[in-house]
Amino acid sequence: MLPFLSPAPAHLPALLRDSFALQRAAFQQQRNPSVEQRRADLRQLHRLLVEHRAAIVDAVQQDYGCRSRFETLLTELLQGQEAALAALRHLKRWMRPQQRRLDMLQYPLARAYTFAQPLGVVGIVVPWNFPVAMAFQPLIGAFAAGNRAMVKMSENSGHLARLLQRISPQYFPADKLCFFADDDAGPGQSLGPLFTQLPFDHLFFTGSPQTGQAVMANAAIHLTPVTLELGGKSPAIVAPDFALDQAAERLLWAKLLNAGQICTNVDYLLLPEGREQAFIEHARRIAAARFPNLLNGDYTAIIDQRQYDRLQAMLKDAQAQGATLIPLLPGQAGDAARRILPPVLVLNATPAMQVLQREIFGPILPILTYRSHEEVVQYINARQHPLALYIYSHDKAVQDFYLHHTLSGGVSINDSLIHTGLHNLPFGGVGHSGMGHYHGYEGFLTFSKLRPVFQQSRWRTVDLLMPPYGKRAYQLLKFMFWRNR
To answer: Distance between CA atoms of 19 and 121, rounded to whole angstroms?
Structure first.
């Protein structure tokens, strides 16, 4: 028997090698699951989320220390259930071969079409900020496409990882789906760098651009295709025509969701010059109404001490370089022991400050001012392409100007974050903020090989173009050029 190509490297832990070999062998036995089997897999994912909802919320709460239960239910469990049901509704259409048009002169009786085939064993690396959504959303695309999956959870999601390891076998065999905790590599070791060295048929990673570079380098060893969902500094632009109180309502909802720990969150705000104080007044009023008590469980903690210290260092750096820090809840100090960090606006920020150099990933919002649309575009385009762009304007000309003069992963107009939760819109970055898409049909395609097929007829035009090239062949070629002039 011939050996299977690309076995797992021998230096990797046996746990990884054995799981990968098991799934590869199972895929070889069933390379193209039926629509019924794929639907069954999607129903099982949905069942897992429904039947263990409370336990999943509790596990995420334990990992964060304090994670708003409502936000976990809304942004993770509900989103996952909706996405699974949406895939179930559309799966048969996604799998249907798509006919492609041919030139009727050259191929009068032939046909061409594409059909989507599973890739094989997919690796998924999950971040800590939305660990349920970022595990199950790619899984939905991978299972809809007919693949098997190995999922590596974040080092900050230990309780959730152990829960999923316990309950997953109730729904899927290990040769279809298995979860890994970061400490599965052994005491004091991280599984992440080892996991991404497996010769997956596709590798899906969500995390920072810096780690994304290392993941891509590991994948390159085996020429493994990758989808990278990274981050960056996503701007929000409020145009002069948009009501400032409504902009503040929508921006603050996004910025304080999950305490700002969202890769597509508003990382800095661009306001028309002279509107800063009015925005601050609206923002303080809104924050006080929504979070009268930061310690009552509605406001999420920073995930760990390292991230909390990083955010505090950002604030100290900005203040030391002349920025003005504006607490949105001046009467509330938060709780350093529980890593509850109150939201802060930053005025007079300069490019030398960390808050404008690095992705913030927390409840800190720098405010910059501008005088013209061109000035905004120049500032945004002088930096790496962001994962999201938020445009607040009712003026179609202004909307189109920003859309056509910038490049970002996705866009919400007159709102923030909403586009990231829509199952029929692709989600993905560009350049420094990532590559590839998922969600809905695009997720199905990401985890598929869209295979082109040409089927020739008994009679073919190319037979008239064989050497020796006589007068008839030249006349036919001349006619083809004439038709394509």
So the answer is: 10
Give every CB contact of residue 49 below 8 A, 6+ residues apart in sequence. 56, 77, 80, 81, 84, 132, 136
pLDDT tens for each residue of 90-103: 999 999 999 999 88
Q: From the candidates 71, 76, 178, 229, which is the catalytic residue?
A: 229
Instruction: Give the active site residue among 71, 76, 263, 276.
Output: 263
Give the model's pLDDT for residue 338: 96
The pLDDT, as a whole number, for residue 3 is: 45
Radius of gyration of the chain (CA): 26
82 flagged as catalytic = no
Instruction: Give me the phi and psi of 441, to 5 degrees please.
Output: -60, -40
Q: How many CB atoms sit inside 10 A of residue 360's CB? A: 24
178 counts as catalytic = no
With vertex at residue 483, the alpha carbon angle to CA 480 and CA 485, rounded to the nearest 5 degrees, is 105
Which residue pairs from 309-313 have beta carbons closer than 8 angstroms and sit at least 24 positions apart in sequence? Answer: 311/341, 311/360, 311/361, 311/362, 311/364, 312/341, 313/354
Q: How far is CA 358 from CA 174, 254, 352, in A?
A: 39, 19, 10
Q: What percent of the chain has pLDDT over 70?
A: 99
Q: Do residues 136 and 83 touch, judged by C-beta distance below 8 A?
A: yes
For residue 6, what pLDDT is reported?
A: 67
Which pLDDT belongs to residue 7?
Answer: 79
Phi-psi region of 70 (alpha: psi -120 to 50; beta: other; left: phi over 0): alpha
What is the predicted pLDDT for the residue at 104?
74
